[in-house]
Design a protein that fits this description.
9% strand; alpha+beta; Beta Polymerase, domain 2; elongated; 7-stranded mixed beta sheet
Length: 398
Amino acid sequence: MKEVVRAAFDLARRFEAEDWPAALVGGAPRDLLLGRPCHDVDLVVDASLETLEERFSGTRILGHPPRRSALVPWRKHHFEVVSLGDRPLEEELSRRDFTINSLALTTDLKLVDPFGGGRDLASRRLRFNGSAEARLTEDPLRALRLFRFAATLPGFSVDGSSLRAAAEADLAATATERRGGELLRAASGNLPLFLRLLRRSGLLSKGYPPLALLEEPEVGGRTDRRLHRLCPLSTDVSLRLAALLFDALPLPAIDEALADWQWPHEVAASVKRLLIDEALRNGEDLFAGRHMKWSRQERQRLFAFALAAVDDEKSGRRWIEARARALAAELRRLDEKRPLDGRDVMTALHCPPGPEIGRLLHALDEALARGEVTGREEALLWLRGKISPFRSSEGESL
């Protein structure tokens, strides 16, 4: 049992020592029964949130009536706790989104399952808890959560009546960053399945307007093929999201979509770097000089993305050649040490500072990446050979 689960049970017993009945609810009982890692644990307690705030230092009350909770620090963790407010535990569980989340586990390890969540876990079935219409009226985002659970819980399928109800969800009023969060979480699982359920329900363009192009057979088919190839190669969420968005988002729409979805900065930056890279967009050199400035992880993403797009012998050969150049550059550690810098160029060519120096160094990076130059002396000879073209295009500045 993970430390966080032990700490949660410890907190629940601490509540009960105050004569406040408590239990673990939601995802924790579900994941424990499935044998999955348990990262976040929620609790319910028969005490007011104000009492918790008074008795447990550092506690913060979250949300607004009628759905408030307290964030209680305990044993190096923070637990979200909901007050029963003199309501029976079963009433609280009746409000949970899906049957598999309507479970509770008491401190004496008794499973409370009034709505058939255990049976649905055993049969790997996802369905709304109670009235689907009521659950979706409370929060229409639950339609996307339904599909996200299907993508991240292996072997689970969506109940037909729940799928039909989800298709009627009005997502217009849900915050775009919440929808973006569901897309981000789905990318850690079976992203092609998430996309397929969105299409099947008619919620793709409603939930994610920037992805409307994926409704078109040609664009959607190309994206499906890329994702089916890529997902077995890598669990990298940034890489999978870039593959999903590549054909759907034109360049001018990238920044707005990423800003709306509010993904973590590192994820958004990695996705954008792949989406705007000219090697992937326009067929330029797959391993160009600029890629030597990328981190090793970013270059790995570049090649995995390109591999997932291989459709024929020509593109496969291009990928192999580019990969060989990249491996050679890794061995030479050219990404860490360029043989010349700007001062070297100005000294060797007797030229003043200026933008031409940067362009020459960029051209040198491309030559290094292609293996045309391997050391300092070759670099100097190569640069001297480039003086004439630069003079003819830039005047006599060099």
